[in-house]
């Protein structure tokens, strides 16, 4: 089963996360820079306005400054500029400023004032003020309300931040949307790679023609797969040709040995020697037949002959076929059809593969032992055909090796066989895109054919378990 990669672990997500981090830091730095520049410009403009007002009032005689302040206050309809004169004791004499900020000093230096208390009862936050001492000892205070500047600055910074967030969301969202297609291509590459691992060397990686990195990688892998397929094909062809060419002379030798055996009816030692030669010839013919059968199954590439088949009937036929063999060896042979379902495949090939597993299980089970054939539900849409026995078992380190041609487990060297039985089962499983798995369950050796998907729901039936109690 092909599993989708987590998008959080992909290089696309990491690049997007790095881009988002750099973008956020850049936007933050830009906002800080813009705010500093705007504040500096605003303070320069206001301070110039305050210094101009200070010079303007100081240019008049001291006795006329009060009148000019009243005149300026009356004409200032916008309410941005404010003027007042205070006694040395900081008591207001004239103007629209009621109290002099405590932090103000009459040194003609502009100060930022958090709140400016006016005579109309209102307070102006964010003001700049400048105080200077007049010739008669009183204090001239000029101030400017910077509230509008601050509002404009805040609005600009908020708009800049909102624009940055929108750009970030659109950019990140766009990158994620565009990353879906490469991930789909990677999933397709992963799916094909799994089929190649299962032995289908005719598969090729998808090439879209965009000449991007994935196309380059696919081209390299396809070239490599072509070379591997050619080399493996040549090796198989040589082996198959040898097996095919030797069958005819071996069959003739087999016939001649049978004829020779009939001539030694009265000579038991020679007759026994000829019989041993016949047995060895039969072994060779069986081995070559099995080898050619494996090659035949592996070369089947078309699946048009596949159809929907019911495991209920298939496994019942196999159980009926091998029940007499199990009885003869006094082996309990159990059939469990509780989770049998309809699958898509070739009935003849699956019959041959499962029969091979059952035959091996009965052969290696001890006298009075147990063999179980059944269907196990793994999860929704996935079942396993299990063949279990309490024979010598297969060591875990040999699970992969026993599926190869001519390999025989160390525990089974004394038993007759060609070492090709599981090779045939593995070839049938690969053709159906099933998976062969070797394991153990409840003290029994279990060989399973995992069917990753079946096309019909499980058949409704009562719990059905058939056995031949010994």
Automatic annotation (TrEMBL):
<keyword id="KW-1133">Transmembrane helix</keyword>
<dbReference type="GO" id="GO:0000155">
    <property type="term" value="F:phosphorelay sensor kinase activity"/>
</dbReference>
<feature type="domain" description="Histidine kinase">
    <location>
        <begin position="241"/>
        <end position="455"/>
    </location>
</feature>
<keyword id="KW-0808">Transferase</keyword>
<dbReference type="InterPro" id="IPR004358">
    <property type="entry name" value="Sig_transdc_His_kin-like_C"/>
</dbReference>
<feature type="domain" description="HAMP">
    <location>
        <begin position="183"/>
        <end position="233"/>
    </location>
</feature>
<keyword id="KW-0902">Two-component regulatory system</keyword>
<protein>
    <recommendedName>
        <fullName>histidine kinase</fullName>
        <ecNumber>2.7.13.3</ecNumber>
    </recommendedName>
</protein>
<dbReference type="InterPro" id="IPR005467">
    <property type="entry name" value="His_kinase_dom"/>
</dbReference>
<dbReference type="InterPro" id="IPR003594">
    <property type="entry name" value="HATPase_dom"/>
</dbReference>
<dbReference type="InterPro" id="IPR050428">
    <property type="entry name" value="TCS_sensor_his_kinase"/>
</dbReference>
<feature type="transmembrane region" description="Helical">
    <location>
        <begin position="159"/>
        <end position="180"/>
    </location>
</feature>
<feature type="transmembrane region" description="Helical">
    <location>
        <begin position="12"/>
        <end position="36"/>
    </location>
</feature>
<dbReference type="GO" id="GO:0005886">
    <property type="term" value="C:plasma membrane"/>
</dbReference>
<keyword id="KW-0597">Phosphoprotein</keyword>
<dbReference type="Pfam" id="PF02518">
    <property type="entry name" value="HATPase_c"/>
</dbReference>
<dbReference type="InterPro" id="IPR036890">
    <property type="entry name" value="HATPase_C_sf"/>
</dbReference>
<keyword id="KW-0472">Membrane</keyword>
<dbReference type="InterPro" id="IPR003660">
    <property type="entry name" value="HAMP_dom"/>
</dbReference>
<dbReference type="InterPro" id="IPR003661">
    <property type="entry name" value="HisK_dim/P_dom"/>
</dbReference>
<keyword id="KW-0812">Transmembrane</keyword>
<dbReference type="Pfam" id="PF00672">
    <property type="entry name" value="HAMP"/>
</dbReference>
<keyword id="KW-0418">Kinase</keyword>
<dbReference type="Pfam" id="PF00512">
    <property type="entry name" value="HisKA"/>
</dbReference>
<dbReference type="InterPro" id="IPR036097">
    <property type="entry name" value="HisK_dim/P_sf"/>
</dbReference>
């Amino acid at each position: 089963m092909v599993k989708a990669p987590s998008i959080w672990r992909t290089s696309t997500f990491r690049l997007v996360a790095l881009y988002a981090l750099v973008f956020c830091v850049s936007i933050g730095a830009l906002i800080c820079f813009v705010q500093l520049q705007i504040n500096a410009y605003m303070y320069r403009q206001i301070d110039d306005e305050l210094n101009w007002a200070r010079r303007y009032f100081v240019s008049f005689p001291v006795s006329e400054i009060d009148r000019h302040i009243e005149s300026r206050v009356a004409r200032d309809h916008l309410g941005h500029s404010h003027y007042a004169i205070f006694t040395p004791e900081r008591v207001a004499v004239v103007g629209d400023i009621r109290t002099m900020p405590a932090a103000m000093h009459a040194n003609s230096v502009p100060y930022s004032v958090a709140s400016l208390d006016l005579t109309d009862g209102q307070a102006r936050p964010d003001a700049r003020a400048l105080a200077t001492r007049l010739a008669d000892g009183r204090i001239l205070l000029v101030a400017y309300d910077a509230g509008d500047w601050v509002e404009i600055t805040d609005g600009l910074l908020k708009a800049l931040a909102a624009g940055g967030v929108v750009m970030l969301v659109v950019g990140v969202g766009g990158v994620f949307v565009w990353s879906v297609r490469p991930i789909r291509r990677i999933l397709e590459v992963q799916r094909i790679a799994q089929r190649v691992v299962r032995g289908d060397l005719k598969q090729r990686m998808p090439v879209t023609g965009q000449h991007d990195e994935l196309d380059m990688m696919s081209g390299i892998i396809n070239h490599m797969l072509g070379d591997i397929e050619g080399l493996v094909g040549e090796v198989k062809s040589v082996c198959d040709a040898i097996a095919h060419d030797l069958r005819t002379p071996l069959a003739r030798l087999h016939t001649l040995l049978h004829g020779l055996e009939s001539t030694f009816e009265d000579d038991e030692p020679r007759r026994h020697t000829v019989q041993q030669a016949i047995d060895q010839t039969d072994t060779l013919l069986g081995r070559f037949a099995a080898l050619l059968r494996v090659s035949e199954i592996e070369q089947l590439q078309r699946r048009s002959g596949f159809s929907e088949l019911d495991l209920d009937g298939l496994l019942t036929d196999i159980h009926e076929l091998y029940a007499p063999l199990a009885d003869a060896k006094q082996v309990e042979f159990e059939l469990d059809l509780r989770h049998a379902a309809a699958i898509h495949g070739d009935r003849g090939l699956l019959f041959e593969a499962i029969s091979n597993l059952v035959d091996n299980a009965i052969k290696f089970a001890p006298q009075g032992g147990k063999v179980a054939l059944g269907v196990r539900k793994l999860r929704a849409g996935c079942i396993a055909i299990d063949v279990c026995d309490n024979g010598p078992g297969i060591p875990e380190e040999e699970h992969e090796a026993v599926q190869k041609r001519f390999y025989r487990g160390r525990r089974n060297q004394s038993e007759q066989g060609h070492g090709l039985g599981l090779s045939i089962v593995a070839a049938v499983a690969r053709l159906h895109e099933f998976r062969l798995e070797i394991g153990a369950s409840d003290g029994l050796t279990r060989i399973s054919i995992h069917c990753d998907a079946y096309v019909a729901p499980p058949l409704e039936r009562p719990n059905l378990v058939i056995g031949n109690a010994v």
